Amino acid sequence: MRNAAREAALNIIFAKQFNSDCMDALKKKIYKQFALDNDDDLLFAADLVATVEEHYEELIKGIEDACHHYRADRINPTDKSILLIAMAEIRYFDDIPPVVSVSEAAGLAKKYSSETSADFVNGVLAGVINK
Predict the structure, then answer these.
(1) What are the C-alpha distances in Å from 123 to residues 49, 63, 67, 119?
(2) CA angle 80-81-83, nearest 5°?
(3) pLDDT tens digit string along 38-52?
(4) Are 96 and 89 contacting, i.e. CB atoms less than 8 angstroms apart?
(5) What whole-number distance in Å separates Cα of residue 123 and Cα of residue 106?
(6) What is the pLDDT of residues 65-121, one digit of tens each?
(7) Nearest CA among 124, 67, 55 for reference residue 92
(8) Eight-state DSSP code of residue 62
(9) Hey, which end of the chain has fewer CB within 10 Å, N or C?
(10) In whole angstroms, what is the distance from residue 71 CA to residue 128 CA?
């Protein structure tokens, strides 16, 4: 279930915005919490997190450009985490169609963020894939 893997990655990326200490222990706990015992799901979640960490600055710049230079530090941390995951998928996961990444991101926003976040996330990512 890639949905659970995305949710686990979201929790890790969100937490890292506030505290980068003990990330290995936190990652293990979150993977267990989301029951990522299937090797494919665990690998997908770990790859998402690693890709966001490796390309963080580039992904943030892409988000800011898509938001018409609206600074990323002004974006709700949950929305920013969701956007980072979707941007990583769009740019670095060729096996995932961009429309799927956008749809999954909007679903995460509906579940984890504010009432208007799904529209915001969808709009930002539509600007990225239509560019």
Answers:
(1) 23, 11, 9, 6
(2) 65
(3) 789 999 999 999 999
(4) yes
(5) 10
(6) 898 867 888 999 999 999 999 999 999 999 999 999 999 999 999 999 988 999 999
(7) 55
(8) H
(9) C
(10) 16
**Identity of the residue numbered 87:** M
Give me the amino acid identity at 108.
L
Angle, vertex CA 76, rays to CA 1 and CA 100, nearest 5: 30
Q: Which of 104, 99, 106 is nearest to 128 (CA)?
A: 99
**Structure token digits, residue 122:** 């969808």
pLDDT in tens, 47-72: 999 999 999 999 999 999 898 867 88
Query: φ, ψ for residue 104 (rounded to 5)?
Result: -65, -40
Predicted TM-score (pTM) of this structure: 0.94
Q: What's at 45, amino acid-wise?
A: A
